[in-house]
Amino acid sequence: MDKHHHHQMPLTKSASRQRYNEWVFRDVPSDITIEVDGGIFSLHKFPLVSRSGRIRRLVAEHRDSDISRIELVSLPGGSESFELAAKFCYGVNFEITSANVAQLCCISDYLEMSEDYSKNNLGSRAEEYLDSIVCKNLEMCVEVLRQCENLLPLADELKIVGRCIDAVASKACVEQIASSFSRLEYSSSGRLHMSKQANCEDWWIEDLSVLRIDLYQRVITAMKFRGVRPESIAASLVSYAQKELTQKSVSGSNAQEKLVVETIVSLMPVEKFVIPLSFLFGLLRSAVMLDCMAGCRLDLERRIGSQLDIATLDDILIPSFRHAGDTLFDVDTVHRILVNFSQQEGDSDDDMEDVSVFESDSPTATPSQTALFKVSKLVDNYLVEIAPDANLKLNKFIAIAEALPAHARTVHDGLYRAIDVYLKAHQALSDPDKRRLCKLIDFQKLSQEAGAHAAQNERLPLQSIVQVLYFEQLRLRSALFCTYPDDDIKPMHQSWRINSGALSAAMSPKDNYASLRRENRELKLELARMRMRLNDLEKDHVCMKRDMQKSSSRRFMKSFSKRIGKKFNIFGHSSSRESTSPSRHSERTDSKITDRT
What we know:
Elements: H1 13-23, E1 32-36, E2 39-43, H2 45-51, H3 53-61, E3 68-72, H4 78-90, H5 101-110, H6 122-132, H7 138-148, H8 154-157, H9 160-182, E4 184-186, E5 192-194, H10 204-208, H11 213-226, H12 230-247, H13 254-267, H14 277-290, H15 294-305, H16 313-316, H17 331-355, H18 367-386, H19 394-401, H20 413-425, H21 431-438, H22 448-455, H23 462-483, H24 496-506, H25 509-552, H26 555-567, H27 569-580, H28 582-596
Parallel strand pairs: 1-3
Antiparallel strand pairs: 1-2, 4-5
Helix pairs in contact: 1-4, 2-3, 4-5, 5-6, 7-9, 9-11, 11-13, 12-13, 13-14, 14-15, 15-17, 17-19, 18-20, 22-23, 23-25, 24-25, 25-28, 26-27
Protein name: Phototropic-responsive NPH3 family protein
Organism: Anisodus acutangulus
Domain BTB: 30-98
C-alpha cells in the first residue's frame, strides 16, 4: 500500500457503488450484504471476516442463513470510509493520505481491524502513517485535524487529535527557536544581539484559520503552553477572527459568532500591546452586539482601558444595540473603559512610587500624566459627539466627564464646548441641573477665546457668567501688572466675590437675581475699561519699540543728538520724559477711560 500524502476527492454514494463494482469479485456470487449510511454493498464473507473482528462476530450471529444482511450503524466516515476498509480486505491498493488517514484509523477501530485478526492490518498501517509522516509535517497535521471535525469523539478517544495538536504546537515552537537563532549576529563591538528582521516566518498562522473553533482553541492553548511567541499567537487570533466574523458573517449564525468571539477573547495573551487596539474595539463591538458573556466584555474593556491613550474618537464611538429609545452610542461601555483606565493609572502611580522613590519630586511629567492628558482630550471630543443625543441623560453625561481625575485636564475649553452643545440640545434642562452641569468647568482653565465666548453665552446660568467675568477681570489685571509692575493697580473687587455669596444666601430669589445682574453689569463695565487701557498700553509699547529700532540703526544721528542736547538740555529732557515716564502715561490713559465712561 502506497504511503504518499496526495489529497483524494470524496466520493458520492452512487459513484461509490459504481467504483466498488470494479473491484469486487464478479465471478463469485455475493454471500453478504452490508448497509452503511443508506449505501448497499454486496460483498463476500471470507475477505471481510479475515480482517474485521466486528464483521466476524456479526456473521457468526447469522450462521443459520445462507446470505447475511448486516447494517453498520454510526460507522465513522460513512460509506466512503467503509469502501476503503472493504478495499483493504479485498487486497486492493489505494493511497493513505492526510485526507483519509483519520477516517482509516477510526474505521479500523470500529471494524476491529487490528493485529489480533490479521498481520499488518488496516489499523496498524494507518497508525504508522499518522506517526511517521503526518506528525512530522505541520501542514498535514492541520489537514488531519480538519478531517477529525466529523469524527469526534472517536478521533479524540484514539488520540488522533491530541497527537496532531502536540505536533503542531511543538513544530511551531521549534521553528520559532530556529528562526531566533538564525537572527543572532555579532555587532561591531563584539556583542551578540538579535538582528532586526520582519517577523513573518509564522506561515502556519493562515493555515490554522481553517480549523473549527473548538479544535483551534485546543491548538492555540497547546502553543501557549509550549512557549510560542505572544505576538504570533495574537497574529493568529486576528487572522482567525477576521475570517470567521467577516468572511462568514453572511452565512454564519449568531450563536456561532458569539462562540468565536468568546473563545478568541479567552485565548488572548496576557502581554500588553501584542493585540492591536483597533482589533480589540472591533471585538468589543461584536461582543456587545452578540450579547456575549459579561466576563468576555469586561476583559475586553480592561484591555482597552490599559492602552486608551492611543485610541481615536472613532474607536470609542460604539453604537448602542439595545432597545429603541436608548442612546445612539453605548455610553455605559465607554464609562467602564474610562474607569478601567483611571484605575490602571492609579495602580501605575503606586508602582512608580514603590520603584522610583528617589524620583518622586521630579518636575518632569511622567508617562502617566501624558496618557491622562491624551485621554482627557479624547473624552472631551467624545462628549461633544454624544451631547446632541436627546436621549442622553444628564447623569450619564456627567459620569463620563467626571470619570477622569481633576488634574487630567489642563485646559477646560473642550469640556466647556461639550457642555455648551449639551445645553443647546437640552433646552428644557432646569436651572439647578444647568448649575450642576456647569460646576464641572473650572473657569480659570478657559483660554481667552473660550472665556470671551462664555461671557456672552446666554445658555450658561447667570452664576457661571459672573464667574467667567470675574476671572476675565483677574486675567486682565494680571496682564496689566506684568506690563507695568510699578503702577499702583488696586484690586478693586477683591472682596466682591465673598460679599456676593454671603448676600445671596440672605436675599430672596428675586433680589438675589437682581443683585447678580447688577454685579454682572459692573464686571462687564470694569472689563471694558481694562481692555481699553490694555490696548492703549500695547499700542504705546509697539511705538516705543519701533522708535528704539530706528534710533539704534542710525548711530550718526544719535551722536549728533547728544551734541545738540548739551546745548539744548530742556528739549532732550522733556522728550525723554514724555516717551518713557510710566506715571505720566498712566495718567493720560486713565483720563481717556474716564472720558469714555
